[in-house]
Design brief:
single chain; Rossmann fold; six-stranded mixed β-sheet; four-stranded antiparallel β-sheet; 9 helices; about 30% strand; binds adenosine-5'-triphosphate; ATP hydrolysis activity; ATP-binding; AAA+_ATPase; ATP binding; P-loop_NTPase
């Protein structure tokens, strides 16, 4: 029997003025699935993450998250059950905030503010997550002094702090050097393979960043779904070529993908 759905979109449109950000999107993410979401700049990926994190309502259609339908639920109760990392959330973290506070304060759904005291359970969980994501040694550093890779990993530790049922990672690989990217892919592969980890959705621009262990993929173009399903069926040269509007050659070695223009020698 399939595991329960954590995200369910049915006939979803998002319209702003004359702009169609999403058109007729149907999508189901199940508890044990790990999805990668690919599409060109402006395809609608971040808009989809905004819906899946209960930060936005659809113009038309229904969005059901963790069994609760948007419009019929208090989003402030839903949001702590969903972990999100994104560039816009990162911008809201004060550079002077202590890394340990960035992580532990997630449990209280605040950025840039922390309580006088956290309970020992929270502090222990934050320390465990910081170690797991390789930022334990920086707990007393200011967030603004971290490298881009360390900041990305701090944000993921923060997103996991509330023990979410759904983890949404909007371009965690952006701005990382090769070593940082490989480190991130390794950690995300471990998380993908952890049967106790939450359902995961990763937005990326690069097939090289798809962690082995990811089970499903969606390709978006101009707000519409080009393809969605098992990674092996969706991450193909013809479908990627259609999505990005150029002829691509695709390679795969030990679960890792590479893509390049097919006409290049
Ligand atoms: N409030 C708005 N009004 C009009 N257009 C908008 C609004 N918000 C976003 N858009 C447009 O909607 C499209 C989809 O944006 P979105 O951020 O979801 O794309 P994306 O796939 O995440 O892009 P990128 O890869 O560049 O981050 C873009 O063309 C964007 O300019």
């Amino acid at each position: 029997m399939p595991s329960p759905a954590v995200v369910q979109l049915s006939g979803v449109d998002v319209v702003r003025g004359s702009a169609h950000l999403l058109r007729g999107v149907d999508w189901t993410v199940r508890e044990d699935e790990r999805w990668v979401l690919l599409g060109a700049n402006g395809a609608g990926k971040t808009t989809l993450m905004q819906l899946a994190s209960a930060q936005m309502h659809p113009t038309r259609g229904t969005v059901t998250l963790l069994g609760e339908t948007l419009g019929a639920v208090d989003v402030f109760e839903l949001r702590p059950r969903i972990g999100l990392t994104s560039a816009s959330l990162a911008q809201r973290i004060a550079p002077a905030e202590r890394v340990g506070d960035v992580v532990v304060s997630a449990g209280y759904a605040v950025v840039g503010r922390w309580r006088e005291r956290y309970d020992i359970h929270d502090l222990t969980r934050a320390a465990m997550l910081m170690d797991q994501w390789g930022v334990g040694p920086y707990a007393n550093r200011q967030f603004g002094t971290l490298s881009e890779g360390e900041r990305k990993r701090t944000q993921i530790a923060r997103a996991l702090m509330t023990d979410p049922e759904l983890l949404l990672l909007d371009e965690p690989g952006a701005g990382l050097d090769l070593g940082g990217r490989e480190d991130l892919v390794t950690r995300l592969t471990d998380l993908a393979r952890d049967p106790n980890a939450p359902a995961q959705v990763l937005v990326t621009h690069h097939v090289e960043e798809i962690p082995p262990g990811y089970t499903h993929a969606m390709l978006l173009s101009d707000g519409a779904v080009v393809a969605a399903g098992a990674v092996d069926d969706v991450i193909t040269a013809p479908l990627l070529s259609e999505t990005f509007g150029l002829t691509l050659a695709l390679g795969r070695v030990r679960g890792r993908f590479t893509a390049r223009r097919a006409t290049d020698a």
